[in-house]
Amino acid sequence: MARRLSTYVLVCICLASVMLMAAEPGSGLALAHRQLSARSAHHQRRHGHGGRRRAQKHAKKHERTRANRASKKALAKSRPVSGSAKGPRLASTAAAPSASAAPSVESPAPESLPGELSPLESPAPKAPTGESLAPKAPPTEELPAGSGPSPRKLIWSDEFNGSAGASPDSKWSFDTGGGGWGNEELESYTSRPGNADLDGQGHLAITARAEKYTGADGMTRDYTSARLQTLNTFQFQYGVVEARIQVPAGQGLVGQFWALGNEAYEGAEAWPGCGEIDTMEVLGSEPNVVNGTLHAPWAWAPTGVQGTTESATPLSAGFHVYSVEWAPERISFMLDGAVYKTVTPADLPAGAPWPFKHPYFLLLDLAVGGEWPGSPDASTHFPAQMLVDWVRVWQ
Questions:
Q1: Selection from 1, 361, 384, 390 nearest residue 226 by Cα
Q2: Residue 192: burial class (beta carbons within 10 Å; 0-12, 13-18, 19+)
Q3: What residues act catalytically?
Q4: Looking at domain 85-394, does it have CATH number 3.40.50.1370?
Q5: CA-wise closest residue to 318 among 300, 340, 335
Q6: How far apart are CA 247 and CA 143, in angstroms?
Q7: Nearest to 207 by CA among 180, 168, 170
Q8: pLDDT digits over 322-376, tens only?
């Protein structure tokens, strides 16, 4: 009996010793327990409430973004676009092509976006951060983003290399005048270098200025700008047309890259019968939104059939590639290679005309005021510039 009692006492003493060791702060058992607890708490912080808060925040942000996009799309669709039912954006005077020497065909600029440009306060633009000042080499045959499985051939391009202040290449002519251009615009388009010239850094600079000007048409306007076109020098039918452009921000400004049917200015199929493909229209008051629109003699769609997409950052903050892929029965609008709107004859009412099966010519302009963007205000900076890095057509 005494032996069993002694054994019992010995076992109790051993158990007590083990418990004291576990409670000792420096002991291995206590340290292991603390490390296990710490790992558990860290796991909860990474994947528990913090993760849920982040998910909730992301969901709210996504919902706000989606609501804003829907609101902007509805607003854009409710506004009449350039070339509305009031009339086409046609020339009152067509100036002859510039007489400057034609530069060689040059290379694409880097596709990475350059740094943000501040509003331009002087006629001579500065190169964005990271923008190469060296002349661009000729673009090689390649597959433009968004095109079909077969490589396309470059059939026409302008890379806008040349010395600062030089007029655009003779590939372009000027539309001039201050007649409102079918959209009650406020500028007079001119062929002066002060409104369209090369910046010496591989860009065409189209500059809108706040100045009183009376053109050859006798009309006096408070703004000047430029509108370039290729009616007499280049026309094409089908393919991919694209331009790398930085648009300006500012109420009352509209940067535009578009194409018109070759009978737009005169003939039996003058506008809107000739058709119009607006590859890009960006309002300076909505610098995150690009509009792509088709116009035709559609009584049911006097402002055209339009698609829009929204950029995560302002399009005025850097260069972006605006493209249209044009096939006989399909036209797709793209921003930086991503299709955001496709229109086919099947999308139109039965019997609606499809005037997109004949040659078109290109246009570039920076418009001021009008029914769609409204007039400039005190927040609009002048001179305002639209910079064009290159324009290319592939077939």
A1: 384
A2: middle
A3: 276, 281
A4: no
A5: 335
A6: 25
A7: 168
A8: 999 999 999 999 999 999 999 999 999 999 999 999 999 999 999 999 998 999 9
